[in-house]
Amino acid sequence: MNLANRLKTFLDSRGVQYEIVGHPHTTSANRSAEAAHVPGDALAKGVVVEDAGQYLLVVLPATHRLKLGRLHHALGAHVGLATEPEVAELFADCEAGAVPALGPAYGLETVLDDSMAVQDEVFIEGGDHESLVRLRGETFRSLLGNVRQGDFSVHI
């Protein structure tokens, strides 16, 4: 249950109060929510997309699936999913598939799905497959800064 170094540094440097929630090893955000006994709608997952070498982190609930067509429309650009090697390079201190949903900690512009903008409490991956970070929803959104927001996911 160790937080990724960049994530921990980012949170600590901003004096943010957070709690680490441990859970058994999982292979997906939805399973992490189940294992940690937290609402899947409150677990923010990060999906990395790319457009001409520029990367964005799209944040949506673990219970949702990204709809690229909606994202294209919202951004006015045709983005595609980043490859696993690209994500591994961007999140070098994280295990594969355990991307923390705080793009600013990794120097990435972040786009927030509308469904994450209403959560009172938000959980994010801690950078491994055994820990989540619990944040107040207001704190989470303030850490993202001035982000673009829209409806580009569907509940699964």
* Euclidean distance between termini CA atoms: 28 Å
If helices are DSSP runs of H or I spanning 4 or more residues, what is the number of helices? Answer: 5
Order of helices and strands: HEHEEEHEHEEEHEE
What is the CATH topology assignment? YbaK protein
Notes on the structure:
This protein is an alpha/beta fold. The protein has a single domain, classed as YbaK/aminoacyl-tRNA synthetase-associated domain (YbaK protein, Alpha-Beta Complex). Helix content is 26%, strand content 31%. The strands form two sheets. Strands 1, 2, 3, 5, 6, 7, 8 and 9 form an eight-stranded mixed sheet that branches. A two-stranded antiparallel ribbon has the order 4-10. The longest helix has 9 residues. The mean pLDDT is 94. It comes from Thioalkalivibrio nitratireducens (strain DSM 14787 / UNIQEM 213 / ALEN2). GO terms for molecular function: aminoacyl-tRNA deacylase activity; aminoacyl-tRNA ligase activity.
